[in-house]
Amino acid sequence: MAPRFDVIYDGDCGLCEASRRFGERLDWFGVFRWRPNQEEAVLKDHPHLTARALDGALHVTGEGRTLAGFDAVRFMLLRWPLAAWLGALCYLPGAAVPGRAAYRWVADHRRTVLACRIGEPTIVHKFFASAFICMVLAFALAGPILRIEDWPLTCAPMFATPLEADGARYSFRFVALDASGKERELASESSGVTELRLKRLLFGRYYGSVDPSYEYGGFPADTPAAFEKRMTGFFDEFVDGARKGRTLPRGIVEIQLVVIREAGTARERHVSGRYNVRDRKFRRSP
Length: 286
Prior knowledge:
By secondary structure, the chain is of the alpha+beta class. The chain has 9 helices and 9 strands. It has helices at 14-26, 40-45, 51-56, 70-77, 84-90, 96-109, 123-146, 195-207, 224-244, and strands spanning 5-9, 32-36, 59-62, 65-68, 169-178, 183-186, 252-263, 266-276, 281-284.
């Protein structure tokens, strides 16, 4: 089916070029043929148009009619199946006044405020780029500001703040014991969760601190009993995940949570508590 109308647009305008690509995708029946006003044959094919008029607005011409600006846009929208509803709205009484004013502003400022030359970012690109940057910064700063140590808000490790004078860092290990008392270390991945994710999960949602003065404790009204209950829930999930993945050694009766404190070359290990696999209970060390 041959195109019935020529759409004459500014080929040096990035916004216009983007509109062309969008319009061609919506033009299922090939009603329109897009032609840049820089094309020499355009004025020969349409002698009733002038270069000045074409530079000022988009034009649709064919079958004895010529429309410009907002009138041309709504004419095309009405003939694109997916956008026909929007075109119908543009024909409602009173819609033409704000529509023409908005189109006129965009057309007059497309090369200045909107920076819509080919190869230059448009105001739309700048807006979304700025919004994306602000979103990333918001997530990065929300962790330390809200003191949340979990995905997607985390202050580790980029914004981690040493809370002790010697800059101590803490980590943990899982040590499993069988009935004979033989120890073996369980990898963090035994639960089916990566080590970094498990650390954030443990320290951010479960471990906390029984000391209400601890800045990042996370549980200001904490008690030893509440701590044991939270840790029981943590190890229930840890053991269930290990059993599901068949990574929990047979014969294990107890899992110790060993907290490691490192400050410079000094290294300390402390058993924070023990989880009884049979009773499914965690008890903190005295």
